Amino acid sequence: MSTRFYERKYPEIDDLVMVQVKRVAEMGAYVHLLEYNNIEGMILLSELSKRRIRSITKVIRVGRMEVCSVLRVDEEKGYIDLSKKKVSHEDAARHEEWYARSKAVHSIMRHVSSQTEKVVADLCAQIAWPLYKKYTHALDGLRLAVADTGVLKDLGLPEDVMEALMAGVRRRLTPQACKLRSRVEVQCYEYEGVEAVKRALLQGMSVSTEELEVKVKLVAPPAYVLLTTCLDKDVGIAKLDAANAKIKESIESEGGQFVIKSAPEVLGDHEDAIGGEKHGSGSESESGSEGEQEEGMEFNLSEEEIRKQTGGKEEDR
């Protein structure tokens, strides 16, 4: 099966390419260019590192993926010389992202091939390569097609190919909501303690919008968790940061303390919203203790509940 991502059969000089190391020899490392149908290239020993090489295995290993710069291309003989040392960390990071996007496009082409029995290379020539010319990246065109299939009209795709393509695009590119969490401690032992905590938490929740709501849940006094769900991780993190800043400003202005126990982070499948790791499957976790039930309780804005959560007592006031 073809793994040629781009229309050009060979890269050009100074292009960045993603390679996988296949064999290490005295002269350097033999690699496969993953974006160019796994054609072979070589990273010369002198191009592996800017530092003096005492052991080549410490610089490069078989199986590793590396971003390299193209030094020379001999299309007639099929020779491609590469350099690893000329690639900065910033350039490597950018090309890793580019490669991941290109790989996603090729994965969609393979999906269409499996559904229509069309050859992958033919589908790339018909769909992906024209999109690379029209947009900064072919993936940008496919993302636009999720909202408006008209952007693919110029490709003149048969109905079965278009149907398989859009199914693959929606499956791979439709945004998935992510949950974010930040753990904080909020407490106040001044006269306005209970009310101060209440006002601070309300301030944190005040940053909520119709599209993005911030919730507060109790862990165990004085620990709280701020939660939100959104499509854009960066937007969600910024929203929780804003909520934390509001809480901090409010509680500290009234003589209380605010501590961030964990910065805003994306929750993985192995974590729950409150305590981190999911509980096991034993009878204890199935039944749930009274304390565990309380940990899942949403922040209640009543004074009585705030007093209960913060450990305040009526006589303290």
Structure notes:
This protein is of the alpha+beta class. It folds into three domains: 16-50 and 61-86, Nucleic acid-binding proteins (OB fold (Dihydrolipoamide Acetyltransferase, E2P)), CATH 2.40.50; 91-173, DNA polymerase, domain 1; 178-316, EIF_2_alpha (Alpha-Beta Plaits, 2-Layer Sandwich). It has helices at 56-59, 89-116, 120-134, 138-147, 159-173, 193-205, 233-253, 283-287, 290-295, 303-310; strands at 16-24, 28-33, 39-44, 65-74, 79-83, 178-187, 215-220, 223-230, 257-266, 271-272, 276-277. The strands form three sheets. It has a five-stranded mixed β-barrel with strand order 1-2-3-5-4. Strands 7-8-6-9 form a four-stranded antiparallel β-sheet, with helices on one face. A two-stranded antiparallel ribbon has the order 10-11.
Largest sheet, order of strands side by side?
A: 1-2-3-5-4
- Assigned CATH class of the largest domain: Alpha Beta
Question: Which band does the percent of strand residues land in?
Answer: 15-25%
Regions with little confidence, pLDDT below 50 for 5+ residues: 277-303, 312-317
| Name given to the CATH architecture of the largest domain | 2-Layer Sandwich
Derived structural class: alpha+beta
Q: Specify the overall morphology.
A: flat
Major sheet attributes:
5 strands, mixed, barrel
Distance between the termini: 75 Å
- CATH homologous superfamily identity of the largest domain: EIF_2_alpha
- Kindly report the CATH topology of the largest domain: Alpha-Beta Plaits
Task: Describe the protein's topology.
Layout: E1 16-24, E2 28-33, E3 39-44, H1 56-59, E4 65-74, E5 79-83, H2 89-116, H3 120-134, H4 138-147, H5 159-173, E6 178-187, H6 193-205, E7 215-220, E8 223-230, H7 233-253, E9 257-266, E10 271-272, E11 276-277, H8 283-287, H9 290-295, H10 303-310
Parallel strand pairs: 3-5
Antiparallel strand pairs: 1-2, 1-4, 2-3, 4-5, 6-8, 6-9, 7-8, 10-11
Helix pairs in contact: 2-3, 2-5, 3-4, 4-5, 6-7, 6-10
